[in-house]
Amino acid sequence: MSEDSGPEITAELPESPFHTTGTDHITLIGSNEEDTIEFYRDLLGMPLVLRQPNLDDPDSTHLFFDTGDGRILTFFVKDDRESSAAPLRHQIGSVHHLSFSIDPERFADIKRALEEFGHGYNEFDRGVFHSLYTRDHNGLTIELATDKYDIPDDRRGEVLATVQRIRVADGAEYAEAEHLERALDELGIDSDPVELPDAPTGAGVE
């Protein structure tokens, strides 16, 4: 499918019966409570804000974590489930990865913490953001991403849609930092670049 024949890319609200107002929470099937808390609270630093029986299955526990901005990640866990760090197999409808934002000023500290907790990682420069990829205790890929510029949350979609237009006009295959810089300038968003290390793009890497 060519760029011209693809779906319209825009930050404008589509003509649909209704519009969502944001992400309330995402729920995953976890293994056991201890390992889940150790990874998401003790390593990633997400407060455990609610713990109760699963309303649909009282024999399992429902854990609620605040991902850092009030948006919630929850898990259904049972103590008799063993964790397995083997990579998950992807199929239609499965979760490929979860991405959480991190403070760019803590980037080196975060890499050291992952190493100390025994979690390997890959580091990639994704053009408009910079990411570390690791796996949780159940083999789910976790991306820890930081923007190259401080983009206001309420303008993120607008910025990315502008990046897309500039990228296509340039004939570039992927969005790059220069496209982001031009988009911010065009939209009048004043933001200083973040200091981040050089890293490969990871294009084509599973």
TrEMBL record:
Q: Which residues form the VOC domain?
A: 22-147
What PROSITE patterns has UniProt attached to this entry?
VOC
What InterPro entries does this protein's entry cite?
Answer: Extradiol_RC_dioxygenase, Glyas_Bleomycin-R_OHBP_Dase, Glyas_Fos-R_dOase_dom, VOC_core
Region entry Disordered, spans: 1-22, 186-206
Superkingdom per UniProt: Archaea
Which PANTHER family does the record cross-reference, listed alphabetically? RING-CLEAVING DIOXYGENASE MHQA-RELATED, RING-CLEAVING DIOXYGENASE MHQE-RELATED
Please report the name of this protein according to its UniProt entry: VOC family protein
